[in-house]
Amino acid sequence: MVRQPQINAQNRAPLSIERIIEAALQIVDGQGLSRLTMRRLGDALEVEAMAIYHHLPRGKEQLLDGLVMHVAAAPADAAADADLRDWARGYRARLLAHAGVLPLLVTRRNPAALATTVASLREVLRRGAVPEDVAAVTAHTLLGYVIGHAALEVRGTEEDGADRTVDWDARFAAGLDLVLRAA
To answer: What average pLDDT does range 53-67 have in this prediction?
Structure first.
């Protein structure tokens, strides 16, 4: 008889919403959104799937909202210390790193997910003496551009019909110049 190794619960970090979201993100990043199940997540966390519901009572819906919040929220100090170009490049990189969550970001109705990001962008714009009404429009436009570009990039769209490989970095930079010049 072969003995299975015992999992030492004392060496494992306590279950928390943050730990659950991180484990779910690893599954989505590595295997895709369709492979994220509560059972698979429980296995990754080395807990029974039902233990997750203690932290996420609404189950998978709350988990998906948590993934969107985690990926969509730019770090609190990111926009404060960066100019808008740096912010846009960093946010695009974050979205591309977690491309499996991007469809959720685009389709789920979760206004809180983007509220912090929009607020931090508006603050950067206001500090640059941009009037509040213009700052609001600019923040939404910039955020829409970055999310939309990342979505096209993940999809691999070559909307110009060219038979050449698209330089996504150059295309992003050129579009960003257009958006920021208009701001």
So the answer is: 94
